């Protein structure tokens, strides 16, 4: 179960044994991939408000790098009409629009080659807490992108979503026990076995395990909503000062781990705190615009959402962050601009994305630049 397989050349053993590794998100990109929202039980009012938010995200990222948006056939003309001409619209069927989790994890090689990891996907828990059924179209997205790009695809028989991991590009990986060790992903799989898969597939040396993700994160605690690398040896962490808020304890648990560990290069981590927005809750009119289906996760008035400013996208020349709370947006923008002085931090209204269960990082996937030796 733990040995990656490969479906296309180069043939042989694991990605790591062949010299491939996962680069950091802040390394140079050739493109960004997204999907188009249309699912009526995830996105209210036929996804029209969410589509506008996705257009704003794609337009902002396109200032930095090429953007590809995968669209189901019945939404192709609508998406092409709404998206700016510099954004390329391609027909890729999907069950929903979370490209970070259903799209490929890209790997690079010192000789300039690119490859993708094709993890297994079960909609964040399958029939034990998963968010929708079926997910058959999502399962084919990685294969399709690999074939479009003409690059190798390593098939790994382990359930894992892209938002569950974050790397520094120098051998260190961040994740949460709540997600990667959840029995609704890979029942019976030990921490040691999961670490072997991560090392062999992504070329990393050290895994930093945080206990839990953000409070009530429906992905079972994806790390990309809680904590991420902003540079080698530096992370940003969602922070809450309200002792009565459950996020308070979660953030302090994470901080204790981060401050007591070192990365793969032996460095102590520098932790930057980002304020938590809100807390934010689904309003009555926001819930009433959704289709109610037994096969999908309910979204009810008064439900708390796992809002986080950590859920941003790092492009070549921009950082696109979610605007979620006027009381904290400016402070979060100021902190991120200080952490990325060589990039322009752009805020995009993102509540409509959060209403669907995720945010800007969740709907994007960077394609690393092919670096020639």
From TrEMBL:
The molecular function terms of the Gene Ontology recorded here are: agmatine deiminase activity
Q: Where is the active site?
A: 362
Q: Which Gene3D superfamilies match?
A: L-arginine/glycine Amidinotransferase, Chain A
Record flagged with keyword Ribonucleoprotein: no
> Could you tell me the keywords of this UniProt record?
Hydrolase
Tell me what reaction this enzyme catalyses.
Answer: agmatine + H2O = N-carbamoylputrescine + NH4(+)
Known InterPro entries for this protein? Answer: Agmatine_deiminase (IPR017754), Peptidyl-Arg-deiminase_porph (IPR007466)
User: Entry's Pfam families?
Assistant: PAD_porph
The EC number on file is 3.5.3.12
Q: Which NCBIfam families match?
A: agmatine_aguA (TIGR03380), PRK13551.1 (NF010070)
Q: Which family does it belong to?
A: Belongs to the agmatine deiminase family.
| Name of the featured protein | Putative agmatine deiminase
- What is the species of this protein? Billgrantia bachuensis
């Amino acid at each position: 179960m733990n040995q990656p397989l490969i479906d296309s050349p180069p043939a042989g053993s694991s990605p790591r044994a062949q010299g491939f590794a996962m680069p950091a998100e802040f390394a140079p990109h050739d493109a960004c991939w997204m999907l188009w929202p249309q699912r009526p039980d995830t996105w209210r009012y036929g996804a029209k408000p969410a589509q506008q938010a996705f257009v704003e995200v794609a337009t902002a990222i396109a200032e930095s790098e090429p953007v590809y948006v995968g669209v189901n056939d019945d939404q192709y003309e609508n998406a092409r009409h709404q998206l700016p001409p510099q954004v390329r619209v391609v027909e890729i069927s999907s069950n929903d629009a979370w490209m970070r989790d259903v799209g490929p994890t890209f790997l690079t090689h010192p000789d300039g080659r690119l490859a993708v990891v094709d993890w297994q996907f079960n909609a964040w828990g399958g029939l034990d807490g998963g968010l929708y059924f079926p997910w058959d179209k999502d399962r084919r997205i990685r294969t399709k992108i690999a074939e479009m790009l003409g690059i190798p695809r390593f098939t790994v028989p382990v359930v894992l979503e892209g938002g569950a991991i974050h790397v520094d590009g120098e051998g260190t990986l961040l994740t949460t026990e709540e997600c990667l060790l959840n029995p609704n992903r890979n029942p019976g799989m030990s921490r040691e076995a999961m670490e072997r898969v991560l090392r062999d597939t992504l070329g990393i040396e050290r895994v930093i395990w945080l206990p839990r993700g953000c409070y009530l994160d429906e992905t079972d605690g994806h790390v990309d909503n809680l904590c991420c690398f902003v540079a080698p040896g530096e992370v940003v962490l969602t922070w809450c000062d309200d002792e009565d808020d459950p996020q308070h304890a979660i953030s302090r648990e994470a901080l204790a781990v981060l401050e007591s560990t070192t990365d793969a290069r032996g460095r102590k981590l520098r932790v930057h705190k980002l304020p938590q927005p809100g807390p934010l809750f689904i309003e009555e009119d926001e819930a009433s615009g959704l289709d109610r289906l037994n096969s999908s996760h309910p979204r009810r008035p008064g439900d708390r959402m796992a809002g986080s400013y950590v859920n941003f996208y790092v492009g070549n020349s921009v950082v696109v962050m979610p605007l979620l709370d006027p009381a904290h947006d400016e402070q979060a923008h100021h902190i991120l601009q200080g952490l990325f002085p060589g990039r322009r931090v752009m805020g995009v209204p993102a509540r409509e994305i959060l209403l669907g269960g995720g945010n800007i990082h969740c709907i994007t996937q960077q394609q690393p630049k092919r670096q020639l030796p």
